[in-house]
Specification:
The protein is mainly alpha-helical. The protein has 15 helices and two strands.
């Protein structure tokens, strides 16, 4: 009888934990379902705004892949985003090529090659680099690119490159609105699935191990720095894809796309939503951009101050981000195949029953 009483709360607690473990997949399904139907209910100007949100979510996803799962603090993620934007803008302006089958692969390639080169410099030294070294190195890269873009006449200087022709597929042009929204949505959904597969694969587990205990991963024979370089390059390719989509959506690229301000903004997106969950930074982008949109309309003089204070409050009092309010720590971090530990009150109940 005592055993049955002890087993009852244990089963109940197990069921509760099982239900809580399903929260992230539920959030993913609800959020992407909302994305899928949003243009049906939104006016055209809001659909254009929502398209930018999806592209920025793609960029935030690239940051979470390296910071949340690999422990690589990049303060220069805008470098790959903006460089790819400039690259496809030059291809469209100077070569007259705007085909989606050329410019999006080109944007991916620019982000991949640039991140591979910068990552090799920062990560493949004789000794493992510190987090501060990587953060300052990527920050410097973003700052240098910003100054170069502002000073180089070929890149349009302070004015950037305006009037980029629309992206095409044959004779069809991707104009801003619903069509471009679903193009951005498809890119985000595909990249999200790829990232989900990567972080749950053996490669992703090795990355998480290198993030938490790098010496132990080295002991098991993994080359931790090469693993980090691989995911850093993948992240740069995703940021490059976002930059290509952004350039053709707005029809303009400028120095702000490669600068430190946008790089810092991406970090804030991830911190607000919750790092290490993939869906957290997407939520962070949606929450920040909607709050900014509403505040700019309601308080046009002081909205940046209010938004900054809100972000500061969240960072101080909810370090796990918005997703930490509803998702347990075990689900966010993952059990990596380990069985769930019984809760303390269940143990004490069992002990009392035995006594």
């Amino acid at each position: 009888m005592t055993d049955q009483l002890a087993a009852a709360p244990s089963t109940s607690a197990g069921s509760l934990r099982s239900r809580r473990r399903q929260l992230i997949p539920m959030l993913e399904i609800v959020l992407f379902a909302a994305f899928a139907v949003a243009p049906i209910m939104l006016e055209n100007y809001l659909t254009i705004f929502a398209t930018r949100v999806l592209i920025l979510a793609l960029l935030a996803l690239s940051f979470d892949l390296i910071w949340g799962y690999s422990g690589i603090m990049s303060f220069g993620q805008a470098l790959f985003f903006g460089a790819a934007g400039y690259g496809v803008a030059l291809v469209a302006r100077d070569l007259g090529v705007a085909s989606i089958f050329v410019v999006l692969p080109a944007a991916l390639a620019v982000g991949l090659v640039l991140s591979l080169a910068l990552g090799a410099f920062l990560l493949l030294g004789r000794h493992p680099p510190t987090m501060i070294f990587i953060a300052l190195g990527t920050l410097t890269g973003s700052y240098v690119a910003d100054r170069l873009a502002r000073a180089w006449y070929y890149l349009g200087g302070q004015n950037g490159i305006p009037s980029i022709p629309p992206m095409t597929a044959g004779s069809y042009e991707f104009a801003e609105g619903r069509v471009y929204y679903y193009l951005a949505f498809s890119a985000l959904a595909i990249v999200y699935l790829v990232c989900r597969f990567v972080v749950r694969s053996q490669f992703g587990l090795a990355l998480a191990g290198a993030r938490d205990r790098e010496t132990r991963i080295l002991f098991f024979g993994y080359q931790a720095q090469r693993l980090k370089l691989t995911v850093f390059s993948l992240s740069g390719a995703i940021a490059g894809l976002a930059g290509g989509l952004y350039a053709f959506h707005d029809g303009f690229v400028g120095p702000h796309m490669v600068g430190v301000v946008l790089s810092t903004q991406i970090v804030l997106y991830a911190l607000l939503g919750g790092v290490g969950t993939l869906i957290g930074p997407v939520i962070g982008v949606v929450a920040t951009e909607i709050a900014g949109f509403w505040l700019a309309d309601s308080f046009p003089e002081i909205w940046p101050i209010i938004l900054g204070l809100l972000l500061l409050v969240v960072a101080l009092f909810w370090p796990t981000g918005l997703i930490g309010l509803v998702v347990s720590e075990q689900e966010r971090i993952g059990s990596f195949g380990r069985p769930s530990l019984p809760t303390r009150h269940v143990d004490s109940g069992g002990d009392n029953g035995a006594a």
